[in-house]
Write the structure tokens for this entry.
Amino acid sequence: MEVNPLNIFFVKSDSKGDRLLFRYPYTTENKDENKQKNYGRLNPYAINSTEDLLQNPQSQTSNICKGELSGFTDEMLSTLFAVKAELCNRKFELKVNDVRFVGHPTLLPYRTNKDDTAAMILINIVFALQASASHSIVKCYYDLSKRLGKALTHEEKRCSYLTEEMKIMLEAHDQVSALDQEINGDNEDEEENSRHSVSSTTQNVDNGIDSDPKNAFDLILQKSSLAKSMKDVFEELSNTGIVQVTINKWVLLSFCLPHKAHQIHNRGLIVEPETIDKCISMLRPYHGILLMVDPNALLASIPLDGSPALLRLIKCYSPLKSLQTLAIEADLTLTQAFQLTGHLVYWAKATVIFPLCEGNVYVVSPAANVHVHSPLVDEFAKEFPGLCLLQMLSEFSLPAPLWYVCRSGAWGARGGGRLARLVAWLLQRRLLMQLHTYVQFNSPHWPRQRHSDSPQAEGKEYFCEKHDSYLSSNISFSSLNQLQLNVPEPVEPREVINCESNRHYPTQNNLNQTDFSHTQPIVIESDTKYKFEVDSANHSFDEGADVVDGDLDKGQKKANSVDSGISNNEKKLTSRLSDVSLKDTHSSDEDRFESDERYFKNGVSLNLKLQSEMSFQSPTVWTAPLGCDVVDYCRFPPEPPTTESLLDTFTPEERAVLANIPAADNPDDLLLLAQLHKKGYFRGEQHLEEIMFMENVTRSQLMQLLDKFKEVLITFETEDPAVALLYPY
Amino acid sequence: MEGNSKFYEGCGQEGPIRCIFLCEFHPTAGPRITCQVPENYISKEIFDTVSHYIIPKVQLQRCTLTVTLLGSKILGFPVRIDNKKYARNAYYFNLCFVCDAWARTVHLEPLVKKLTEYLLSMELETEWLSKQSLSGDAKELNGLMRQVMQDINSRRMCTLTVGTTTTHLTVVRVNTDPAPVKDHQVPVFLYSRQSFVADQWDLTTNQILPHIDGFNHVAKIASLTDVEISLVRACVQNLVYYGVVTLVPIFQYCAVYSATPKLRQLTRCPGLQRQCVEFCARSPRHLPKVSDLFRMYAGMTYGSTIRDLCRRMKPQDLAINERKLVLFGVLEGLIRRVYKFPVTVHNETSSVRSCHSACIRTYNGLICMDELCCQNGMSVSLLEEQMEKDSDVVFIVK
């Protein structure tokens, strides 16, 4: 796997020269192999392969042998990694054949033995990776190297930790090399003798190995705590991708390699930090999170100095809640909630979903592993006895809202909780994917040049991207066809071209490609005087937060607690709506349900009755006035605008088309259409759930509108791009 | 320079060669640059800091070395010649290419190596290099390097002639190996066929080329051209590697497609719209409307086949060629194919039954219907009928 490190090195360079102090893993066989080669040559019957004299000697092309680094001696590596002072404290990257070395050489003052004369020493912790590892992997390793350097600098300053450890390592090296010399001396004598008989040499070699003291690195690993930490770092990187090491029992170093960490839950899923950044920048308040691990376990794993905001968020967690709800309940700003989400996703603790709700339409994700003998089948059977994963997936093969699956399947009246748990499980494994319905206003002439802020720019933007993609394909072809290559002139600051990003969204995080600042894991604390350890008492939170587990009472309680909010809002909502339009269609709740029933055939609806039954919370009826920062998101018209003014948003051609539609005779319908159109909801970018969320309209209202104006409104179903980013295809 | 610019580190794009220099180990002065094009791109200070990666120790001779520092990437292939005639009994040199730090340089590695080997053989034969460096007049070398840089940057290939020897350099894009080609997949040209130079390809490829039209699948091409199917697969895979063709799913009226988030680009980008209209038209004189095309794409979703869609929308009345519509959508990523996978589920009860009817095939969930049809030479409906009889088979659509 190219994500895994091949090796970790620790090199120092000071006035006494450079030295490779420690490496892991180290192999003891190397020497023996070399020896055997030497003996092989002594064999009188061996044919010396005559090299083709006309050819230049073949060069070495690979330095990886059976997944391990080969062909480098320690001395050679130490000279390579002991960089000149000019290159210190910046990225060090060296590629030799198919191995890439990356590190952050750190220059730090240290105390020499003779009291206070401070000298500078260079340390470099280098990781060896496969050269094919992507740039973002390399960057993460660089970051880790930098952090290790910082931690060591701090510990050196605090209690000369580095000096002590280096002393231990150097001593071990000297000790072993002294022993080695003795033995080598013996060996040389024996080799003299061995020339006479082949059999005796092999015996001698055996003896030599037996009497050989342990490898210097073995000795170091026993004695030095720093070496042990490095070993831990290497092994945790190879196993989970999440590193939690306490250096010198003082500095806690937490690091996560997302490319690897996401594979704990989903084999073969590689999530790059850049993807996460992009996903977070596209987050909207109606999105929710789905934890990949048990919330209690997660709380227990958070170090003591973890952000209290994060703890609060996890305590309120439920996959049924939108981020906005979570933010309100955890008393956070929405931006904070987004950032914490980014954090959780980065550390492979959560994924972004649309909150579970019965109106959701799920299909099997294109990359889902449906092999009969995949381990998921057994896991599923263990988790949900009596159910078969493949049969379950085949039930999701046709898109249908969740309540439909709930009715059709063998789910009893109280099966809702179980179904929710099941869907959550499937979503965690990325087996299911949600489809949303998007609406596009069918204008007589495309693309529209109106809508002030962006369409013009967008067209251009897309064209640029398009052009680029063609350019790159030209390049690939020109090698066959001798076309002209347009050499891209580099580095003029230009905006990142990003076709998927919706420009007119208010972006929370001004992210650029290279900055993961919001996903920075817990930083090394330098001032804390207490030892870090996980205190479970502090994190114990009342009666299991995992609502999905089907604690109906609790769900009920929760529902009650927020009930007042909802009912208020509903009233507000209906009154407001009656201001605007649709006075006659929706006078009471019953009406609404009836109209819902009518749309069951379409396969998308939100049935509020069933919803309470299944103890799902609607993420869609939440409105603004509870949190102050949230107000921005729910844009209400200050006063009901007049039909005339709203109709201005249509071009004359569009108005002509609209006039032919019978539904346009109803001013209320037309008003709603114009209103939504004006706000840009019919550009295929916001799905129905978002429109409902933002504009406080019910699904049935929307569905009716879509039906009435189906000549001009085109719907299409596809996945939410923000959520789909985290899927492996 | 990072951050907002289009060319940040790790963008994966290729960049031009910024500089080429030859560096050698001077018997008294140590490592130094003999010749550089353009002059002073790599300053003395920078060179000194990196020199021990450029003239490295013995073990690293003849390895491709790439070192990234101070905003540039230096590629080299250090070489040593042992001979008594040189001072210190050896001659070390390294011809290095310098690129921007953001650029991808893997494709240049073979080039550096080949050029170095060329210089090496000239040095061995006529002391071409050492003579120039001793005399301090490196005009010839300078000219050579200038030519390499210009030609590679502009044409990606270069022919060098020094004296009586000639060498050819060309940049070959390094791609990962394409996945094995399956019989039911359909190759499609990514470029117009006119721009395709047939002479560059082998005979078998030339034989199958006329049949690559975006609708024939691999097995059909094999039977049409009377070429062994494994050869066709190999040829197509080769074409995929060079980016000449791509593979799309076979067109069937019973196939299901689903719109992707990219579909909304059809509403924004005039260029894409124009292409789509021209491509999907039944006849070039009567072009379909973009809104109709969009409506067709929007109608593609789980559970509705192309047949249903055609019945509903009547594409022939809208001047739309539905085959081309689907092809365009798949190529541009506006839609994606939704495959149907039969899976045999083993229950306790069924296992008993299947014991005495072992002839029934089991399906492991890795092979989709298209592939099965192609393997068995059956139509989808026939195959489905067969599967319906077996109650253990469930269908997963994804």
User: Anything to note?
Assistant: Residues 350-358 of chain B have pLDDT under 50 and may be disordered. Chain B touches chain A through 103 residues (CB under 8 Å).
